[in-house]
Specification:
Blueprint lengths: L1 E10 H11 L1 H7 L2 H13 L1 H21 L13 E5 L5 E5 L3 H7 L2 E10 L2 E10 L3
Antiparallel strand pairs: 1-5, 2-3, 4-5
Helix pairs in contact: 3-4
């Protein structure tokens, strides 16, 4: 059964402005280790693609925090929630402790989709609760 739904729309220009002011510190605060490596690789080849990647991850984490009903308070935090892609390109949420333990103890699973177009990034997350 559905536990929660979250969606978020992010203005990529706002992310660009933040990175312009803070440099890599913003990405380092928001992205997990695997995401950060991907962001750096994409940004070095094509900076606009790197900004879109950062914006979609920011948006997906906002949507996930809404879907689990915690917002941005513990155990939810930016770096404990990563939005990665499987070999086919499908995005998925990878969690790290203590968020992972909390999520699993609740019997939850998540589905995520992300998209970007010109100036905006959007995401949608559905969190399901396993029924006994």
């Amino acid at each position: 059964m559905i536990h929660g739904i979250g969606t978020d729309l992010c203005d990529i220009r706002r992310i660009e402005a933040t990175v312009g002011r803070q440099g890599d510190r913003f990405a380092e605060r928001v992205l997990g280790d695997a995401e950060l490596a991907i962001w750096r690789q994409r940004s070095s080849r094509w900076p606009a693609r790197g900004m879109r990647y950062l914006a979609t991850r920011f948006s997906a984490k906002e949507a996930f925090s809404k879907a689990i009903g915690l917002g941005m308070r513990m155990p939810m935090s930016w770096k404990l929630c990563e939005v990665l892609n499987d070999r086919s390109g499908k995005p998925y949420i990878a969690l790290h402790d203590p968020l992972k333990s909390w999520f699993e103890a609740q019997g939850l699973s998540a589905h995520v989709t992300v998209t970007d177009e010109a100036d905006y990034a959007a995401s949608f997350v559905v969190v399901e609760k396993q029924t006994p």
